Amino acid sequence: MSEIQPLALSGLSKAFGGLHAVAGVDLSVRPGERRAIIGPNGAGKTTLFNLISGDLMPSGGRIVLFGHDVTRLPSFRRAALGLARTFQITTLFPSLSVLENMLLAAQALERTKLMFHRPLGSYGHLYARARAVLESVDLAGKEGETAKNLSHGEQRQLEVALALAGRPRLLLLDEPTAGLSPAESQMMAALLRTLDPAITILIIEHDMDVAFGLADHVMVLHNGRVIADGSPEAVKADPLVAEIYLGTD
Ligand SMILES: Nc1ncnc2c1ncn2[C@@H]1O[C@H](COP(=O)(O)OP(=O)(O)OP(=O)(O)O)[C@@H](O)[C@H]1O
Ligand SMILES: [Mg+2]
Question: Which of 167, 197, 227 is a domain's end point?
Fold first, then answer.
């Protein structure tokens, strides 16, 4: 396991016009940590992920990823350092098969060009990796299924698999249980608990059972600011958190 700090943010900010969506966030993440990021709608959670991943450029502050200052680097350079993410809204190719979705994700991180008219066997190493990852998210046997024909729960599992395809060391999960039934959410939570403990995970999650069940650390965002940060127990007991967030649950 790497001893290098996976992620450090200092004074990270993003303004959209006059709206301070992320307003001076400091964050220090340990190797192997499982940290939940919670907060009401519009708190700035997804914007924070977009800044870390490089999908948005910050208005201010600094992002250090595995010891490298990536504040101004494009997202593919961050991916090459070991960062992967999932999105709040499904981003699968709906009419491609599960395996084709996986191969596209895997080859995006390689120099190999994928051509569907060539037999799958000619992508031996990608194919083996894809199958192993699908198995790890309980989708073994679904390789040939068209993505849009999977259940919602299976589609979310596939999104996690796509993020895992590049062997990330830091994984950002943006509401992996969004749109799932309680039973499907529980399955997702169980699956996330089986991921390699060496992978550092930040998870945005509205489902408190999932968030508190997985995380060893919880950070609460409100109006772009960190209003609480600590153990799940400490955050649950925080009166301000109860007032603005948990009280509405
Ligand atoms: N590209 C954008 N342009 C302008 N405003 C934006 C943009 N993206 C987000 N915002 C605004 O920034 C604020 C934070 O949005 P963000 O999506 O980060 O919240 P969130 O905490 O992820 O909320 P949710 O729980 O609903 O997903 C919101 O007020 C949102 O409307
Ligand atoms: Mg969001």
Answer: 167
